[in-house]
User: Fold these one by one.
Assistant:
Number 1:
Amino acid sequence: MGFHRPDRIEDALAALASGASVIAGGTDWYPSRGDGPVPMNVLDVTRLQGFRGITRDGAGWRIGAATTWTDIARADLPPAFDGLKRAAREVGGLQIQNAGTLGGNLCNASPAADGMPPLLTLDPKVELIGPHGAREVPLADFVTGPRQADLREGELLAALHIPDPGPSAGGFIKLGARKYLVISIAMVAALVHVEGGRVAWARVAVGACSPVARRLSALEADLQGVAVNALAGAVRPDHLKDLSPIGDVRGSAGYRLDAVAELVGRAIAQAARGA
Amino acid sequence: MTQLTMTVNGKAVSGDVEGRTLLVNFLRDTLRLTGTHVGCDTSQCGACVVHVNGQAVKACTMLALEAEGAEVATIEGQADADGSLNAIQQAFQDHHGLQCGFCTPGMVMSAAALLKENPKPTEAEVRDYLEGNICRCTGYHNIVKAIMAASGQDVGAIAAE
């Protein structure tokens, strides 16, 4: 019972084994209780060694799970991270970006998590630490459904490992009912590598239009070799066939599909301009 | 209950809190610093903005124990040493940057964080920074004007509303 804010992972795992509820910034933790009781046993992971900050590691980049959105927005990172930085500035208001973390966003596993689409284009693996040691899982497999993640009993998300994205550039566009402080109706992230005026490769991910944000692999394949000045006509309705948006208070399913068709084109163009 | 110590507006404070106690409740109920308001209770409206270690955060979703050992600043600590309004507070008064006043403590704290980061913001930057602070009276115009004035910029060209 009580409040745990350890700096050693062993102490964190012990607290977790005692049934503690995990917070990593906590911006969504308290509001999500609604009128229900607030847990009395809390584990704050933001002080754990190695959990906060962005570092270059041998094969790419490592982002600690307790890295805040403000940390990401201010970090000196290559253009491939521009989509993630744009997303960081769309998470709530600035005060939320100062407290909320990337790991919290992923473990929360909302279909409308702003961090997911740009991270999916960066193809990361998540590092999980538990009582039986560490394991790595591709991010695309980590979030398994709305509010569901592949976190086993006693495990914590420690970091993301992003392979070097090379000289590519990212883009991100979020559609909300107003400009600020909204949950997405739909959002699209793109990562594009341009060589000689043509797309060498592209990755495109859509959020809030399926139970889990997802890449559009058929579109990615068709974008290869397309001239940058011909991107406008590259997106066809069948590229969106894997999306299954719901209709809710923020928008109908049909509206989401119409909007996302436009957003995909704009996000790709935005990324290509930076590439 | 857990013993909690922090520095609030430059003074060391302590108290016993439950793990689930929110920072805003510790400030308001334990320390009786009631200038920090609770509007929406879900981190949307920004009436509860305080600074923790120099960064603006919303005290209505942060647990008090997350701020253990931190330097916390609230609206009560914003006045100058002699008790007179600081430049931002004075500008809110001079430019009528409030009506009912409920959002004002949060607005002033967000403005202070903005001007520390960006001493001469453009009007667009001010509006962008205030995305997490909601005012239902003023239409924001005079709030933006007050913050521009507090930054020492000429606000004559910004029409009054």
Number 2:
Amino acid sequence: MLLCDFHIHTTHSDGSVDLPRVIDLFGQAGFDVIAITDHVVDGDNAIGKLGRFLRLSVTEKKFGDYMERLRREAQRAWDKYGMLVLPGVEISKNYISSDRSAHLLLLDLKTFVPASWDYERIFLEAKRQDALVVACHPHHQSDPTSKDTLFLWNNRERYARYIDAWEIANRDDIFNVISLKKYPYIAGSDFHKTRHLYSWKTLLDCERNVKDVKRCIRDNRGVAITLFRN
Amino acid sequence: MDLFWIFAAISGLGLVGYAMQILAIRRHLGGQENRQGGGAAHPDPDSSASLEFTDPISVLKPLKGLDDNLFDNLESFCLQDYPLYEIIFSLQDRNDPAHKVAAKVQERHPDRDISIVVEDCQIGLNPKVNNLLAAYRRAKHPYILISDSNVRVGPDYLRAIIEPMRNPAVGLVSNPIRGMGGRTLGAIFENLHLNSFIMGSVCFLDRFLRMPCVVGKSMLMRRIDLEAAGGLFAVRDVLAEDYVLGRKIHSMGLKVVLSEYPIDNVNHYWGVRRFINRHTRWGKMRWRIGGFRYLFELISNSVFVSWLPLLFWGPTGSTVAFAGGVSVLKMAGDYFLARRISARIPFWHFLLSPLKDVFVGILWFAPLLSRSVTWRGNRFRIGPDSLLTPWRERPAENAFAWTAWFSKRTTVSGRP
């Protein structure tokens, strides 16, 4: 089984660990597949504007540099640790109301997708790029410092068909509603700090290459989750 | 102020002791400090004699949990320039996260003789010995190298460590440890302490006092000698299995040698709690083994002693100048030492050296107050020569038992 984490932030957005150190941290711990998913915030609203101002977001202007760094580090990760690194982003639509907020992981993304687009357009663009779409922390979270993002769950009848997988577990939280609905699932750490290494992870029973990993998640067969503890 | 001068004299003695430790390290690693890689010293590659002594070695690596840099640590043993050796990774639980890392290292080096043993052996109370047993049974070569998972070595390590074994009078070879890295306060403290007090003490005991000093992170023995000393079974219930093995081999009339080759212990993400846990455990071990000699550790902590007048008389010109002067001297010594042993540590880490020494000074008292040690999640009571017994709360032996007794008395007397 491949040990995977598909939800990782670096200093390209609001993570506290820079990209090379993230690669080494996960590589040294024996991970097989990780995805770097820095925030892309919706710059059309006030919260997003603040995020951009504080440089907590990958912007269209910085996206090329972000991808180039990811490509270099992905190569190093493969050569040194045999670890596959998927480039990705976390589309972050933040509002004061939790019911309106939503975060989406786009994995194996090729070109920039603005968070200001409407959901259908984002989903269709992700599909065009053959990127995986994951709804992250879709339900109430236990961490009082984290703001709930409930929009996708509240509108699941409308959007579930576009979503390849839902985060059934995020860092220390488990969202049992995903299990009850029998939705396809993965788990991720929502890594921002080194201590977040020890959290919920995904196990995949497939070959260690991008195509098989994506297929495994989409088919959601041979997927398990594990609480990674030292 | 007479007491002030007593503190000054003790602190001065501590600085002299530290200068002697620096001298011991310089002599021990003399002229080898600029070598790059995992070690600072190794035999001359041009010497044909040194190349000839390469008897097969079984490297036993007990694994438990993820150490910082675990992948690199394990892989460094696969990159040895050595003709015939095997590596046995030993675990007690297949779900241990280190298992995955070991399997990856094995997968990446199919040309090496690497095996992974998972077996939950329980022959005693020492968890490291329990973990080692399955690997030891499986080892096939005449030399046994017990190596901790948190060390990284250069490609010439095996050649260097076996070199003293050319002399049949040598029974055990170990290596000094060099702390590297440091991205958290606990890790910075750990590296500063390893590179000053630990390395200094080990080299000082070896060079000047000729005391057999074994560092358990890396121990090479002949299998025949280890068996004669009682094997791993003989150290199943002691905390300081390295010290006891060294003493047993020494008592057999064989020499215990400290190699000139320092091994790296990379510590990046240690928490302060882990630092406290390790050094109270080691302190309790030294207290139970060394007895009154443990007092010298406090005396040799010149920074801690120099800060005591500040505590007693408050910040006056003389107390501040005294504490500041000693701290600066110790910082300079630590920096000089780190440069000599090629420990790649950022300069600003040394500014934390006095704080670390004060902290270590406070931890020094822990062994006098408690006999319990926690190691790898297990709690034990430590006895003479670091003999372990399972921990059972016995209030009469607890230093804070009087609080429970007092509480009980007041509760009873307060009843209507």
